[in-house]
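Board notes, transcribed. Complex of a protein with zinc ion.
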Amino acid sequence: MEFTASSANLLKIKADCLIVLADAQINGVLASDDTELHGDLKALAKATNFDGKTGSAKTLHTPTLPFSQVILIGITGATSRQKQIKVIADAASKAIASGAQKVLWVAARAPDDGHWQAAMVARNVLHARYKYAKNDKVVASRLKTLIYWTGSRAEQQLASTGLDFGAAVGNGMNCARELGNLPANFCTPSYLADRASDMARDNASLDCQILDNADMHKLAMGSLLSVTAGTVEPAKFIIMNYRGGAKSEAPTVLIGKAVTFDSGGISLKPGGGMDEMKFDMCGGASVFGVMQALCASGLAINVIGLVPAVENMPSGTATRPGDVVTSMSGQTIEVLNTDAEGRLILCDAITYSERFKPRAVIDIATLTGACVMALGKQASGLLANDDDLADELLASGTRSGDRAWQLPLWEEYDAQLKSNFADMANIGGREAGTITAACFLARYAKKLPWAHIDIAGTAWLSGAQKGATGRPVPLLMDYLQQRANHST
Ligand code: BES
Ligand code: MN
Ligand code: ZN
């Protein structure tokens, strides 16, 4: 799919669908342009009682105009970023539903955020365009080209870079969604490792290295290996290295939990809804999505993606509740519940990340059901041992509409992890489950500026909408873009 910005005469642009974001008087970007089209659209808006409020839309068939369809989208009342994103997302769905091959999109008036708005349009159109191919009858969306129209040449330039960035983010989200949606009998740790190798082969700025069980034994990743003990699927530790910045620049490390299926292990989960534990690799999938988006956007920054990939299954060789394992850091862990497995693979990945001397480490994980109870499907949970890092990530969440909310990482909570048989237990009791999980990880991140994003509630939707969301690729890409801007 192609995105281009234009400020040419609107009536001279060929497209089969015109989308206009505007108020009831069609005062958007268009108002500054005294074309006869503006007058036509004003008349159409009046004739159809288009009130211009957010949530209102009119689809018009217009034989007298050079576009066979015109879709008016209301923007009055879109006062916050979050509301503006909703308007753009709804309009994007209508653009796809129109069946058009070529859409001409007239931006809402936005002199100060031309880059942001264009990026949001590209991202949301790609998001709306994605379909999981459940059989060979599913046909791809017809939409091939989107021309994003701005009132002036100066804005066109800004919009053009915005479209490129937004398209990279949108494609990155769809990459994460596709990996998330694939069933666990297909998307195994080995499958993920192969996808990483493919991506590295196709992109000069990306390298990848895959560690297997034997390599992990040598590294003494006893905690990670305890999770894979019950399955016949070989575990993989995937290392992706994106070099966009100067050689001397310390990298940002992203660590994504990839439990390709979480049955709970010997602490078996209840049966209802267990299929959704194929999504327990969405943290890892988001790291894949970010890596792809980095390659596409060419951000000037160094980023290392670590994806510990395992399957958590019960069997005669599985880890038992009460077993004690030794992590790569040397700290011992009493595994009281084999279903608290995410932290067991992440702790060894965090220790491994020390070798890169990172400027920040961010892990992304579908870690706790408690996070879904606390924050629902709206916000990801954020916990960090570094306030500046936390603030930057929160700001990126707000700017990208992929929001996170911070929870405390106080030492009082850490006391819940006490064990009589090891340095710590892997669970902290019923209370504050998201926080005690993060406290566990924090014990491995003492030497690092570190943040943890719990995406248990945000990584996928259930019910009729069941499917991976691609979050938090937008949050992470906004954060990395900000960092790249700062360091150059
Ligand atoms: N992958 C789950 C967390 C999860 C559960 C995410 C439901 C999304 C929806 C994780 O591995 C897990 O099982 N966590 C346990 C921890 C508990 C045993 C301390 C949980 O949240 O119940
Ligand atoms: Mn689990
Ligand atoms: Zn899990």
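The chain is about 35% helix and 20% strand. The two ends are 30 Å apart (CA to CA).
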